[in-house]
Amino acid sequence: MKKVTALSAIFLALAGGAFSSSALASYGKGDIYTRVGVAKVDPKSDNGNFNSIGVSDVDVDSDRGAAFTLGYRFMDKVGIELLAAEPFEHDIALDGANIASTKHLPPTLTVQYYPLGGTTSPVQPYAGVGVNYTHFSDEHVNGGNLELDDSWGVAAQLGVDLLLDDHWALNAAAWYLDIDTDATATIGGSSYDTTVDIDPLVVMGGISYRF
Predict the structure, then answer these.
(1) Cα separation of 159 and 156, whole Å?
(2) Residue of 171 and 16 predicted with greater confidence
(3) φ/ψ (deg, to 5) at 109
(4) Over the stretch 92-110, which tens digit does the pLDDT of each residue have?
(5) Which of 205, 207, 204 is nearest to 168 (CA)?
(6) For residue 23, what pLDDT is reported?
(7) Is 143 in contact with 186 (CB distance < 8 Å)?
(8) How confident is the model over 135-145, as pLDDT tens digits?
(9) What is d(CA 204, CA 82) in angstroms, rounded to the nearest whole number?
(10) Residue 14 gets which letter from DSSP?
């Protein structure tokens, strides 16, 4: 509890510095920036089934890891941003038993709208829409082989920067990713196909730097 209270006090102090700043440079056209932090990938519940092998429930668990973005504002209120991260690893439960796993990389490109872009407001919310590409690797299932096809899907994003000075900001952001993959399990020499709907919510907190 003491650690949580201390962290909260630090965050509020930094945020307070952002809100009290009166000499910030305009936040908008021409900005090149990166955001770095920790992201949690939380797949939706009930990710499908594998009825062909007698499995009625497939669940993909959550994972967290380092993530970063790189973006450019080509207009005061409009920009583009690429999300990248280290590989996320997920256990996959088949009818409640964690007997499969996979890793994935989810690079995501979004076009963003900044309603307060072009101003010196220290609070800068934004929203984005775009496309996600997910590459799966290191698939495993006990007693056989598992293959997950790479996926393309839509992405949606909400975020906010709390500006500390002309370069640094606190950042929080969330993405919804449409990730549907065709899965093939090979067990005992026979192959079985299904579709796994992961569709995660990705939540990231960290810092931002404008060059």
Answers:
(1) 10
(2) 171
(3) -110, 125
(4) 887 777 878 899 998 999 9
(5) 207
(6) 58
(7) no
(8) 999 988 887 78
(9) 14
(10) H
**Residue that the structure tokens 């994003």 belong to:** 157
State which amino acid sits at residue 71: G
* Inter-residue contact 202 to 43 (CB < 8 Å): no
Nearest to 107 by CA among 4, 6, 202: 202
Q: Where are the beta strands (DSSP E) in the chain?
A: 32-42, 58-60, 63-73, 78-85, 88-94, 97-105, 108-113, 123-141, 145-148, 151-163, 168-177, 180-187, 190-197, 201-210
Q: Angle 145-199-58 (CA atoms, 0-180°, nearest 5)?
A: 40
pTM above 0.85, yes or no: no
Q: How far apart are CA 185 and CA 195, in angstroms?
A: 11
Distance CA 110, CA 204 (A): 15
Task: Specify whether the CB–CB gap between 114 and 124 falls below 8 A.
Answer: yes
How far is residue 76's CA from residue 70's CA, in Å, rounded to a whole number? 17
Task: Render pLDDT for 26-69 as a digit per residue (tens, 0 to 9).
Answer: 888 999 999 999 999 998 877 676 766 666 677 888 999 999 99
Q: Which residue has the tokens 């770095």?
A: 36
Instruction: Count CB atoms within 10 A of the CB of residue 66.
Output: 13
Query: Is 210:32 a contact under the CB 8 Å cutoff?
Result: yes
d(C-alpha 211, C-alpha 120), whole Å: 16
What the block records as the tokens of 176 is 């919804």
